[in-house]
Each structure stands twice: as structure tokens, then as C-alpha cells.
User: Fold alpha-1,2-Mannosidase from Chrysemys picta bellii.
Amino acid sequence: MQWRSLVLGLLLLRLGLHGLLWLVSALGPGLGFHQRFPFALPPRGDPGPPWLRAAGGEPRAAGRCGRAHWGCLLQGAKRYSGAFPPQLRAQLRDAARGMFVFGYDNYMRHAFPQDELNPVHCRGRGPDRADPSNLNINDVLGNYSLTLIDALDTLAVMGNSSEFQKAVKLVIDTVSFDKDSTVQVFEATIRVLGSLLSAHIIITDTKQPFGDMTIKDYDDELLHMARDLAVRLLPAFENTKTGIPYPRVNLKTGVPPDSNNETCTAGAGSLLVEFGILSRLLGDSTFEWVARRAVKALWSLRSNDTGLLGNVVNIQTGHWVGKQSGLGAGLDSFYEYLLKSYILFGKKEDLEMFNDAYRSIQNYLRRGREACNEGEGDPPLYVNVNMFSGQLMNTWIDSLQAFFPGLQVLIGDVEDAICLHAFYYAIWKRYGALPERYNWQLQAPDVLFYPLRPELVESTYLLYQATKNPFYLHVGMDILQSLEKYTKVKCGYATLHHVIEKSKEDRMESFFLSETCKYLYLLFDEENPVHKSGNKYMFTTEGHIVSVDKRFRDSLWQDTFPEEEERNTEKLKPNELKAMNSSSNCNRVPDERRYLLPLKSIYMRQIDQMVGLI
Ligand code: DMJ
Assistant:
């Protein structure tokens, strides 16, 4: 079916047409950019957030437009209805860096070598040994200085070579995986294995784009540590009848005897990027082989009718225990890694699986009008359905799904990404955070906490790179301001327990430093090597950067699944979906769209109404 190329062609055509429509709508009365997105001016006498205060914390005298004056910066921004003042952008970049530094320094001071920082009481946190059933903690915290490891490449991306070098040495000298910790294979893979590999790639990069990130006498220690961890995770792939891994392993003893046979699809099927990189760096196919076998096993269990997968499966029987199909928890990174595996390793079967999955998503999960930016009807929304019937299962969407516009950017579906992102941004504007679940029918949160997740800012960053529309800088500023206002506490940034009351939990998850702060920083850092042409980076699902590199495309071993590969390659049409990185998508939105709202104001208002904002 040639629908993808058709859609891409139509997309390009539509972009041209919309440029004109946007111009007309933006020039209409009362619809100016800044009027729809007024800056939240601080109350009289309020010096504004710390990053915009003059030295000494005092607001500067009115009339002086010095470098760090809140009012002056806003004046600049308000005068310009579409653009974003470079000075404000630089201030926000520094603010994002400051946010990271505050969280990181406090972790190092109060928590290291423990896994996480409790930012309210300025203490460290490790696994909950007293309560092994506390999976919320124990799945993630392995007693291996998780936050330090997860933060490594953010230090590099921010150009902090001295701290990066210090942190790498600390990891090498102090971290061991020989621990009696039962962790989730997925979490250990994306947060720890992925970060070790990313840092190793940065250290050994001959170009050193972030400054000098080399380590004296470096002898591939991080790669060896990554291998050691992955070997400890391998028992999860043994004694499973389907090849789908057990969800948890004990790092010392392997799969616990009382282990659960049920796993979520994302947890079992999003290991290929990290395991594939590890295999290719080591020249040992084992890791990639087991991860790929898991993906294929899950893929073979999809519904014959809808092509959809469920969210929980029994690894021995292959029966779907959770029949819900959606884009959020339980499935999110499964889709993401089909595409990203293709981008990284170039195997067409991964792209074909992604294409098929994307088609089913569009057919069964997507509701609302056909085009994001034209026509009548509700805005597009991706709902949760029964994988076999395609029937709606509930009326909530979760905050994890906010990553999906970013993925759509990678495949060139920028228009659709704009709409879904706008929906999540409207929810953010209403609560100053994203509730874990939002019920679009009741216009209210179903699950109220916000653990500093990165997904919305990740999509914001990727959409900005694709469109260069300053609207997304405004979104980023909004997010940054809310984080400062509602989540900053004495020793870091805290999970919101209740997005309406803004009560807090004493926890700062490691992805706050590895993803949320990194994407915010990159959004405002115009010159960062990550998005400069000539460099090609891809983000893992935990936000770790890996270079899209020829050495990952060449495997040193014979293809492990030759028959399927051949069959799938035959089916691929030359003009079908091209996977693209964000920079190659930058030309997709024409110049005339760049300084206008990415979404027509009537549609923007419609979304605001649907979320109860107006
Ligand atoms: C991160 O650990 C990863 O992004 C993962 O894929 C799911 N989401 C969390 C952060 O929300």
C-alpha cells in the first residue's frame, strides 16, 4: 500500500497552502500571537524567577534594559509577535542548566552513592529492602548510584567537561552491579545500560563536539560495565517459552523463583537499541539476538484483525493478559524502538514493523477529524482500545503518550504531531504539569501525580527542531516556569503528588536529570552540537544521546533471522515511509509558517475548550 508516500506528498502540499491560511488568520483582529499566549508577568514587586534576577537578587530599576531584567526581556518578547528574543532564549538556556545543576549538586551532596535524591528532606534513597513488593521503588533503584549514571551524558551535552570526567571516574571507581537487587530489566536497560553506552560513545568520539570529554587512560571501562550489567540481565531471556523476557532479575542470582510470568509490551520489547549497540560495540551478537527475538515474539502475537498489540502478555503462554492497546504506558517505547532500531541499525524489517504498527494506530487508535489543521470535528486524539475489536476501553490518556508527537516528527508526520502536542500543552497550561492520567470526557485528571516526566518537553524540543516555530520556545518557557514554581524544593525538584493542590512527594526520579532538564536545555541552546548539522544523534527512550553511526550499521555476524529479513525486504516499497532524523525534517514546514502559531487559532481554542481552559 502506498498510503505513506501519498500522505507525505499531501503533507508537503498542505504545508504550502496553510502558510497562506495562517497568514490570514494571524492578521485577523484580536488573534495576535502574544495575545493568545500572554506572558505570565510576575506580580508587582516580584523580581521574577531567579534566573532573570539582577545580581544580588534585586530587580533592576525600571527603564534600564539590562541583561537580566525580567520586564525588559518580556518587553522584547511581547513586541515581537512571532519571534523569540535571543537574549531571553539564552537566559532560559542558562535557567535550564541551573535547574539541572541544582538537582545534580544536591544529589551529589545529599544522596550519592545512593540511587535517588529525596529533595524535600535532603536525603538519599536506595532500594526498599523492607518491602520487596514496593515495585515503584525496587524496579528502578538497584543500589548502583542510578542518578549519577543516568545524568552522565547530560553533563556532556551541557559542555561541562570537568564534571563529566569526574562523574565518569566516580562511576568507574565506585559502582558495582554485583548487588542483591531485583530490578526491572527494562528500567536497568534504559537508565543504566543506555547511559553507560552513551557516555562511552561520547568519550571515544574522535571529534569531541562537546569539548574535551576524554578520560585519561580510559580503557573502555564503561563498555565493560555495560557488558557486565547486560550479562546479569540475560537470565531474563532464558526459560521463557515465547522468547519474551521475564520482567525482573536479581543482579546476583538471576530470575527470582517466584517470578511473575506477566510483562508489559514496552518493558519486554524496547531493549533492542541498547542491546544492539552493546552487541555491535563488542562484536558479540548475543545481546542483540535476545532483544530482537523478544520483539519478534511480541510482534507475532499481534491481533490478526487489527494489527494491534496489548499492553500485558504472559511470557510462557503468549496470551494477552492486558488487552488494552494505546500509545502510553505499557506500549509507548515499543513503537519508539521499532523506528529507532531502524534508524540506528538500518534493518528494513524494523521499519516495516513500525510502518504496520503506525498504520494500525492510525486506523484504530486515532479519533477526531482527519487533518489536524483543517476540516471539521474534534481534534485528533489517540485513545485506548481493545486490541482485538478496536472498541474504546476507557476515556483517559496518560502523560507518557505525550512522547508520541516527538516520534511523529521523526517520521515526518509533523502536522499530526502539532495537534497532539497542542492537546497535551493545553493540559499542562491548565495544571502547570501533566497529570499521570487525564480523562478527556470528564475534562479532569483520573490520576493526579506528576513525577517530573520529560515527554512533553521532549516533543516540544523535537517539534521546535522540525518547525523552528518560536511557539515551541514559549511552550518550553511555560514548562520551565511551572517546574520552578511548583516543584522546586529545598534540595532539588520534587514529584507532584497532586497536580491541582500542588502537594509534593519526596522523590526526584533520575529521568528528571537525564531527560527533562536535557530536553529543556537543548530547546533553548541554539548552538548545541546535538542538533548542529554534520552531527547525527538519536535519543534513546531515556534521552541518552547515541550517534547514528556507520559502525552500528555493520554487524560482524551473520544475520540471525535471514528468512524473515528477506521476506520483509521484498515487501518494502521504495517510496514507503522514510525514517528521518529531526534535522532533515526542518525543511518540512515552510518559512511562512515559522512565525505563526503552528495550529490555526480556531483549533487551538477548540483544544483549550476541550481541556476546560476557556
Ligand atoms: C523514562 O524512564 C523513559 O522515557 C521511559 O521510556 C518511559 N518514561 C520515563 C519517564 O517518564
Notes: The radius of gyration is 23 Å. The chain has a mean pLDDT of 85.
